[in-house]
Structure formats: C-alpha cells, structure tokens
Amino acid sequence: MKPMTAQDILDGLIGWSENKIWAAELAFFAGMRRIDFWTLEPTASQGFRTCSYEIKISRADFRRDSDEKQSGALMYSDRFWYVTPPDLLRRDDLPDWAGLQEWTGKEFRVIRRAPKLERREPSWELLVSILRNSGDCRRDIGLIKAQLTYYQAREAREKRWKQVADDRKMERFLRRHRQGGAL
User: Fold this and answer.
1) What pLDDT is attached to residue 30?
2) Is 110 strand, coil or helix?
3) For residues 37 and 22, what is the distance between their CA atoms, to the nearest angstrom?
4) Which range, of 64-73, 75-84, 105-114, averages the lowest pLDDT?
C-alpha cells in the first residue's frame, strides 16, 4: 500500500466539504502565513462557523509547527484541526488550541475535538484571500463541464458507430435473404 500524501488528505477534506465554502492554501497576513484548508459554513444557524485544517503527514513536519505559524488560522477560525494519516499523532502531542482528525482514506475519525476559539471579524485582506483561493471551485466546475462535453461527444460518436454497424448487419441480412429468395 502506498503511503498517504497531503494531497490524499486534502482531496478527502474537499470531498467532505460539499455544503461549505472552502479554500485551499488560504493566506493570512499578506501571504506570510497559510493554512492548508479552511471552511466556512454559510448558514446563520451555524453561526457562520469557520474551521482551519492543517495537514501533517510526518511527525517531523508537526514538530516544526507552532502557534506563531498558525496565528492567522487561530485568529480567523472557530476551530483548528490537525488532520493526519492514522496513528501519526497522539492526543497529548497536540497544543491545547487544536483538535485532531485522522483520514483513513474513506472517512475522518475525530481523535480529539477541537476547542472553540474566539475568532476575529474578517478583514478585507482575509476576504480577498478567500476569494482568490476559492477559485479551485470554479476551476473544478469548468473541468467537470469540459469532461462532460468530452464524454457526451464520445457517447454520440459511439452511438453513430453502433448505428453504422447495425445498419451494415441489417443490409447483409437483407442481401442474403434477397439472394435466397425468402424473407
């Protein structure tokens, strides 16, 4: 089995965030700090909850992390999560401001719930970063439309090929029976 990559985990986060506004590689403070994945629940009943997700695939990478590196995410999120492959981190490895989820390749398992944080109101800089980095959604839709067009054209060609083949078989059948004199 191949080792899990950060992209595998990111793909899982995107797949599980279908009803949320999300951004990958969201920049804070003029790009000086970034979070791997950020979500916003677009409903007032959920308090427009925001979550930051930092993906770690090695203990060494986790050890290099700090509250200073995550200051933007901590400032603009209700909850902060580390997301890892199974069994990479222990509950007691985590700072008090972070939760832990493990991605199995099929589901997320909550190992430690993320505590509620006091978030600040968004700045214009953050809003611009969200809009700039949520462009993946629009590009994904464009890619899906292009793929749909390709597969529709392919299906139409295959239908034409089948129709030509069926017409040819029918023509052979009719020719054989005309020559034999009976239908």
Assistant:
1) 63
2) strand
3) 7
4) 64-73
Starting at the edge strand found earlier in the chain, the sheet holding 108-112 runs 21-28, 33-40, 50-55, 79-84, 99-103, 108-112
Which string of DSSP letters, residue by residue, matches 61-98?
Answer: HHHT--TTTTHHHHHS-SEEEEEESTTSS-GGGS-TT-
Measured CA to CA, the distance from residue 140 to residue 153 in angstroms comes to 20
Residues whose CB falls within 8 Å of the CB of residue 79, separated by 6 or more in sequence, listed in order: 49, 50, 51, 52, 99, 114, 115, 116, 117
**Boundaries of domain holding 91:** 6-133
pTM metric for this prediction: 0.69
Together in a domain, 169 and 80: no
Give the pLDDT band (50/70/90) at residue 10: very high
Confidence (pLDDT) at 138: 47
Indicate whether 127 and 139 sit together in one domain: no
90 and 38 within one domain: yes
User: What total number of domains does the chain contain?
Assistant: 2
CA distance 99 to 96: 8
168 and 79 housed in the same domain:
no
Query: pLDDT digit string (tens) for 12-69?
Result: 998 888 888 888 888 776 656 788 998 988 888 878 889 999 999 999 999 998 878 8
CA gap 145, 121 in Å, rounded: 36
